[in-house]
Amino acid sequence: MGAPEKLAASNNSSMQRVKVYRLNDDGKWDDQGTGHVNIDYLERSEDLSLFVIDEEDNETLLVHRICSDDIYRKQEDTIISWRDPEYSSELALSFQETTGCSYIWDNICSVQRNLHFSTVRNDAYHGTNNELRELPPVELSTLPKILKVVVDSSVTDQLCVTELILHDQNFFPKLIDLFRVCEDLENKEGLHMIYKIVRGIILLNSPQIFEKIFSDELIMDVIGCLEYDLETPHVNHRNFLNEHVVFKEAIPIKDTLTLSKIHQTYRIGYLKDVVLSRVLDEATVASLNSMIHSNNGMVVTLLKDDSTFIKELFAKLKSPTTSPDSKRNLVFFLQEFCSLIKSLQMVQQLRLFRDLVNEDIYGVITNILQSEDKKLVLTGTDILMFSVNQDPTLLRSYVSRKEGVPLLGLLVKGMLTDFDDNMHCQFLEIIRSLLDSFSSAGQRDAIVEVFYEKHLDQLINVITSSCKNINGNQGFQASAKPEILLNICDLLCFCVLHHPYRIKCNFLLNGVLDKVLYLTRRREKYLVVAAVRFIRTLVSHNDEHLASYIAKNNIFKPIIDAFISNGNRYNLLNSAVLELFEHIRKENLKILLKYLVETFWDQLVKLDSLPSLQSLKVRYDQTQKEEDSRRRVEERVLEKEEEDYFNKDSDEEDSASATPRTKQIHAKPGLSSGSDASSPSSRVGGLVDYEDDDDDEDYKPPPRKPSEKPEEDEKSLEFRLKRKLLAAKEDPNLVKKHRLVGKNPKSKESLFATLCSTLSHASLPSKKPTSSTPGIDEKGHEKNGPVSPSENGNHTSKVPEEKGVTGT
C-alpha cells in the first residue's frame, strides 16, 4: 500500500471527496467510510485503478482495477456505481460535488477507450508482424494464398490488407493480366478464384480501392472478373456495356473529365444493381451510393460552369427547327440534369435553378405540355415537380403573370387526361402548390382568380359527364377514369379549405354541391366516400348561410340514399356518413340538425341502433325543448311589453281628458245663466277645489281663438279608436290587452268621459262668436265678457255629464 499512500500525500489537492458504499446481502447499502478518490497505476502494474483514501487516517478504503467491460453507471449527477467482478459485489461512490463526479467519470471513460484501442493496436501489431507483413506475389500458384488473406482475415487484418493493396502499385495490373491469361486458357478454376478475390476486395469497402478499380483503365476488366461466378449462369456484362449501352449526347460535351465521370457513374450503378446485387452488404452499398452521388455533383458542377453549354441547350429546346427526336432527347436530358441538381448543396441547387428560370425553363415546359406525346408530357411534369420542391415561389411568380396563364390551363388539362397506368397525382400536387393559401397574397390572388374563372367549371363538367344517367339505367358514361374523378374531388376539398370566401360565389351560385354529389351514383364506393368528404369539408366551416342553402335545396338526399342503400355494412362509406352526423351533433349545427331529423328520420330510423344516430336524435330533442322554452319566454316578454304599451296609452288618454276639464272650470263663468265668476255656483261645478283658486283670479289668459278645437279633439280620439280596432283585428291578443286595460276603473271612466265630451261637441252646432275680446276691470282682473255660443254650449253640456259619470 506504499504507492497509494504516497500518491494520497502528494496529490491530495486533486482528490475528490466521496463516500464509499457496498451493497450487503439484505439489499441495503453499507457506509464504508469517507475519503478522497483518484485514478492511478497499481504498484508494479500497468493497470489503472480507482483508489479511495480515508480522509482521517489515510488508510485505503477501496482499490478497484478499471476494466474495459461496460459495468459502470452514472446515477443522477453525484453517484457512480458498478459491480466488481473480482469480489462479486455492488459498489458505489457518492460524491460531495457534481464536478468531482464528472471528472472521475470522464477519466474512467478515457481509460476504457484506451484499453479498447490498445487491444486493437496489439492485435494489428501482432498480425502484421507475424503474418501480413506483405502480400503474396500475384501468380496463378499463389491465388489460394491471396484469397485466404483477403477473405479469411479478421477485422483488424482487413485494415492491414487494405493498406498493403493500396501500397502495392502493381497488384491490380498483375491481377488483371493474370485474369486475361486464365480467360484465354479457359482456366475455369483460376477464373473462379479471381472472381472471389475481386469480390472480397470490393467487400473491404475502401473508398481508395474503389477509386482504383473503377477507373477507366480497370473498370471493364474488373466487371469481367465478376462474370465468373460458378453459382450463377455466365453473363457477358462487358458485351452488354460495350455494344448495347449507347451514350446519347443531346448536347456535345467537350470536357473529358465530365465524360469520364458520367461513364464511371453509370458503370458503378450497373455493378451495384446488376452484377453484385446478391452479394453486397449494406455498408458497401452505402459507399457505392455515396460515390455515385459525389460523381453526380461533380458532373453538374462542371456542366453549369460551362456557360455555353446551358445556353446551347435552351436555344435548341426553343428552336422551331429542332427535329422531334432531337427535342425528345433534349427534354430527357433536361429532366436528368434537373435530377442531378439534387446532388448539390441546397444553396447551390437554388442558385442553379434560378439560372434555369432566367433561361425561360417554364416557357420550355409550357411547350412540352402541349405535345401529343404523353411520355414527353409526364417528363415535363417531373421537371415542374422538381421546381415545386426546390422553390415553389418561382413557379407561382411565373403563373401569376400573363405569359404563365396557359401553363395553369395545361396543368388542369393534364390532370383530366388519361395517362394509362401512370399517376395523375403530380398534376394535382402542382396545382395545389399554386393555389396554396400560404403563398404571397399578390401571386395567390391572381392565380386563384384565373382558376375559378376559367377552370372550375371544366372540372365540374367532367364529373357531371361521367355520372350522367343513360336512358334511366344504372350505366354511366365512362368519360373519365375513377382516379381522375377522385383527384378532382380532392382538389375541390382543397379549394374549400383554402378559399372559403369563394364558397358562396363559386360553389353555391353555380350548383357545384349538387353536381359533385352525382358521384354518389357511381358504383365505386371510394368515389361516393369522396363526395361525402367534400360535403363534410364544407360543413366544417359552420356557416349558417351554407347550412340554410343545404337545407333549402335538400343537398343531403343523395348522401342519405347512399347510406340507407349501404345498409348495415360496416365500411368506409358507413364511417364517413356517421362522422358527418357526429360533426353536426357535436358542433350543434341547429339548422342541419333540424333538417336531418325532420326530413330523413323516417329513413334513418331503420338504422337507429347505431349510437351516432341515437345521439343525433337526442340532441335534436334537446334542441327542440330549448327552442320551445325560449319561445314561451319570448311570448311572455312580448305580452308584458304590449300590456305596458296599452297601459301607457290609457294614461296618456287620462291626461288628455283631464286637460279640457280644467279649461272648462275657468270658462264656466261665461255660462248663459249670467252668474258671476265669484258666485258659489261656479265653485260647485268644478271637479277639484284648489286652495289657491283665488290667486288664479289674477291670471290673465290669452285670448282664445274660435278655433275648431273640439273637432280636432274628436278627430284625434276617432283616430286612436280606429287604430286600436285595426290592431285588434290584426292580432287577437290585443283583445286580451283591452280587457287588461279595462280592469283599471280610472282609465275606463276617463275614456268614457272623453267619449261623452266628444259626442256633446258633435251634437251642438258651432256659431260665430259675438265678441272675441274679454273685458278688463280697473284692478286688472278679467271680466266675464261675452262667450261664443259654441263655447257656452260646450261647457254647459259637458260639465253635468262629467258629474254624472264621476259622481262629483
From TrEMBL:
<dbReference type="InterPro" id="IPR011989">
    <property type="entry name" value="ARM-like"/>
</dbReference>
<protein>
    <recommendedName>
        <fullName>Serine/threonine-protein phosphatase 4 regulatory subunit 3-like protein</fullName>
    </recommendedName>
</protein>
<dbReference type="GO" id="GO:0072542">
    <property type="term" value="F:protein phosphatase activator activity"/>
</dbReference>
<feature type="compositionally biased region" description="Polar residues">
    <location>
        <begin position="787"/>
        <end position="797"/>
    </location>
</feature>
<feature type="domain" description="PP4R3 EVH1-like">
    <location>
        <begin position="16"/>
        <end position="115"/>
    </location>
</feature>
<feature type="compositionally biased region" description="Basic and acidic residues">
    <location>
        <begin position="699"/>
        <end position="709"/>
    </location>
</feature>
<dbReference type="Pfam" id="PF22972">
    <property type="entry name" value="EVH1_PP4R3"/>
</dbReference>
<dbReference type="InterPro" id="IPR011993">
    <property type="entry name" value="PH-like_dom_sf"/>
</dbReference>
<dbReference type="Pfam" id="PF04802">
    <property type="entry name" value="PP4R3"/>
</dbReference>
<feature type="compositionally biased region" description="Low complexity">
    <location>
        <begin position="765"/>
        <end position="774"/>
    </location>
</feature>
<dbReference type="InterPro" id="IPR055236">
    <property type="entry name" value="EVH1_PP4R3"/>
</dbReference>
<feature type="compositionally biased region" description="Acidic residues">
    <location>
        <begin position="689"/>
        <end position="698"/>
    </location>
</feature>
<feature type="compositionally biased region" description="Low complexity">
    <location>
        <begin position="670"/>
        <end position="686"/>
    </location>
</feature>
<feature type="domain" description="Serine/threonine-protein phosphatase 4 regulatory subunit 3-like central">
    <location>
        <begin position="153"/>
        <end position="622"/>
    </location>
</feature>
<dbReference type="InterPro" id="IPR006887">
    <property type="entry name" value="P4R3-like_central_dom"/>
</dbReference>
<dbReference type="InterPro" id="IPR051137">
    <property type="entry name" value="PP4R3-like"/>
</dbReference>
<keyword id="KW-0539">Nucleus</keyword>
<dbReference type="GO" id="GO:0005654">
    <property type="term" value="C:nucleoplasm"/>
</dbReference>
<feature type="region of interest" description="Disordered">
    <location>
        <begin position="759"/>
        <end position="808"/>
    </location>
</feature>
<feature type="compositionally biased region" description="Basic and acidic residues">
    <location>
        <begin position="798"/>
        <end position="808"/>
    </location>
</feature>
<dbReference type="InterPro" id="IPR016024">
    <property type="entry name" value="ARM-type_fold"/>
</dbReference>
<dbReference type="GO" id="GO:0030289">
    <property type="term" value="C:protein phosphatase 4 complex"/>
</dbReference>
<feature type="region of interest" description="Disordered">
    <location>
        <begin position="620"/>
        <end position="718"/>
    </location>
</feature>
<feature type="compositionally biased region" description="Basic and acidic residues">
    <location>
        <begin position="620"/>
        <end position="649"/>
    </location>
</feature>
